[in-house]
Amino acid sequence: MLASKRIPVAVPSLTGNEKKYVEQCLDSTWISSAGEFIGKFEQSFADFCGVRHAVAINNGTTAIHLALVALGIGEGDEVLIPTLTYIATANAVAYCNAKPVLVDSEPGTMNMDPAKLEARITPRTKAIIVVHLYGHPTDMGPVMELARKHNLKVIEDAAEAHGAEYNGKRVGGIGDCATFSFFGNKIVTTGEGGMVTTDDDELAARLRLYRGQGMDPKRRYWFPVVGFNYRMTNIAAAIGLAQMERIDDALAARQKVAGWYEQALAAHADIIERPVVADYAHHVYWMYTVLLTGLTDAQRDEVMRLMDADGIETRPVFYPMHVLPPYLEDGSSYAVANDQAARGINLPTHAQLEAEDIERVVASLVSALRRVGS
Ligand SMILES: Cc1ncc(COP(=O)(O)O)c(C=O)c1O
């Protein structure tokens, strides 16, 4: 049999103006965090999200930290987050000396369950961070209603959801602000990078102040607050602008890949649960995520090992925060997230996949499931 090429779980697509714009940075010597591409990238991202402001940041973790600081979250405050997320969401809260308070997932979408939110609110609760996990938007209606009722700020962690929509509205403009990641495996990449979006003029000004060491915009080298150096470089923004020029194609490619998975997996619904798309959602499939019916986490890991031997890279669904040493808690309140984390895998999802790659992934997955006895 011919050796088949390896199928990675994620690959960036850099086939537009990325190289040309980076060369322009080098030729012009504007390689640091000033230069024409920063403003252009921010404007194109703000337009894409349908918001007034986009503030470019050096990564998606510092974007959440900055958003929390700019919203006034500090020592002793509590911030509600889903337990099933990437650790950056929880860490950013910890950086503020605030406490991440965990909320279980809802079945289906794998996002924070709005029905379990109110029970976790205390007099110290100041904010909610929703995470649009793997590209599926959180059910924002009930979240925003609770936030209004209890006077809480809402941050959308949209690191994985560029272009996702809730009831026809793009994420990034639904909460008080939203944060994005442009890491190399994301839907839009700048290598490392992030963005905070908001419609609130005052919040945008605070985000810009704290991003740049806290320097007064009207008085050079005057620092009224303790800020951070969380600036994005002109080189990263140059890549980002080129990515935004082709964002429609990037999003369409992922819909195509998801469609191929849907078709190929339909015959295996008894052993592989496909991702749920809620009525209100436009899912952008940062990752096409499946749950393996009836498997333990050890069996799931064995399936991934067998697929790896077939040349197919996969990823396990994130460990929930309550099982990780920094945020360890009794897991009995998080039954849904525990189940999703144990049985979930992310299949290869990126713009360079062809229909025959998806057939190979699904054939390998089904054969691995048979071998582990599903
Ligand atoms: C949900 C979520 N939040 C935050 C981040 C952090 O982004 P970055 O890796 O750019 O710091 C990520 C990145 O993987 C993520 O998936």
Features:
Aspartate Aminotransferase, domain 2; binds pyridoxal-5'-phosphate; single chain; globular; 2 domains; Aspartate Aminotransferase, domain 1; 374 residues; alpha/beta; seven-stranded mixed β-sheet
Describe the protein's architecture and organization.
The chain is an alpha/beta fold. The protein has 2 domains: 18-245, Type I PLP-dependent aspartate aminotransferase-like (Major domain) (Aspartate Aminotransferase, domain 2), CATH 3.40.640; 247-371, Alpha-Beta Complex (Aspartate Aminotransferase, domain 1). The protein has 11 helices and 14 strands. It has helices at 18-28, 36-49, 60-70, 87-95, 140-150, 201-211, 234-245, 247-265, 297-309, 335-343, 355-371, and strands at residues 53-57, 78-82, 99-103, 125-131, 153-157, 165-166, 169-170, 177-181, 194-198, 272-273, 281-282, 288-292, 315-316, 344-347. A 7-stranded mixed β-sheet has the order 1-9-8-5-4-2-3, sandwiched between helices. Helix 8 (247-265) crosses helix 11 (355-371). It is globular and about 70 Å long. The mean pLDDT is 97. The structure holds pyridoxal-5'-phosphate. Pyridoxal-5'-phosphate binds next to helix 3 and helix 4.
In short:
Helix content is 37%, strand content 15%. The protein contains eleven helices and 14 strands.
Mean pLDDT: 97
Write down the overall geometry: globular
Count of individual helical segments: 11
Helix content: 25-40%
Question: What molecules are bound to this protein?
Answer: pyridoxal-5'-phosphate
